[in-house]
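EI: anyone free to look at a 400-residue chain?
SC: sure, send it
EI:
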Amino acid sequence: MSRFSGMIHDDFLPVARALCKMVRRPEDGGAAVCVYHRGEKVVDIWAGNRNAEGTPWAEDTAALSFSTTKGVTSAAVHLLADRGLISYDDPVSRYWPEFAAAGKRELTIRHVLCHESGLFDIGSLVSDSREMLDWGHICRLLAASEPRFRPGTANGYQAITYGWLAGEIVRRVTGVPIERFVASEIAEPLRADGLCLLVPAEQRRRLATLINPLAVRSRFGAERTLSERYRRADRLMSRLPRWTRCALTPRGILPFVFSDEVLDAPIPSLNGVFTARSLAKLYAAIVSGGARDLPRLFSDSTARSLGVAQNRRRDKVLFIPMYWRLGYHFVGTNRGVVRGAFGHFGYGGSGAWGDLRSELAVALVVNRVAGTPIGDTRMLRIGGAALACANKRSQALVKA
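SC: here you go
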């Protein structure tokens, strides 16, 4: 087994083997994994390199984690519901009056959380991805937008728009921007260092550098410059089905997400920066809150609601059923689907999830970007290894 750093319980050594297989070569970059089982942190390890210069991944290294961010943003909305400040079936316009425009008066918070709002089309809202750095501008555009389908009758992955839809609800209810709300109401109570929807400038030194697949892969053609490869990628993305393209690929998205600019303002559907340790602790606080030294984040009833599928239709953007929960999707592993679990995976390979029945929480962050808009097989393998270890450990405890 390749070298890794950190701590791991003997019952979970297969998780370390799965991690080390992911970072065998310098071009594989680095990664970190954290796992909690029954309120106990059993895995907290890292391996590989955080940048192209070969700097080793460190204990405090964090990484931009793309759509894994949506799981953290959703937790903020659930905290409001748990405190009785909102109800999932409240119209969004109750808190955001301008949102009632274009026939959206009855569009609910539940519709937003379950990707049933019909407001996934970021491509028609912005002429350039850098517009997404202006929170007020995007929220005004969304408030004036007409849904692509009648809310509640279908689901289409709000790949980028979700962050403003959910985040503006938090801001309107609390008067606090969502990045500050997450910092003060989630990260600080959990003592979850490295859970950021907006990275302070002084913390950027600890970020892993993303490995851009267009910069290292030759299959995009023999272009000599990165800008030529971006143009080739734009042409390829233009062939995607219309709704997929509109939801996932606003103009200039690739050079934007691989630039330093992407960190300059909160985009709480795609630019959260996390350590695996902070993500796993968040999910563990939901599924095992009150155990050991984990604070209880939600009530039992709110926690139980997160694993309940709200729709089972094929998603109109992703073309497969995502079994959308309230802000989360189903959890797959290389050992099958974890029934009743909830989480969110991201473009690039990161992801995090929790399961109430097994009291298992798993998180992975990486810097080599690969795979689909909702991840690749790395998270499936890490999750499968953690699940097998937890099941074996639980069976042993029962026999004892």
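EI: The CA atoms of residues 2 and 24 lie 7 Å apart.
SC: 👍
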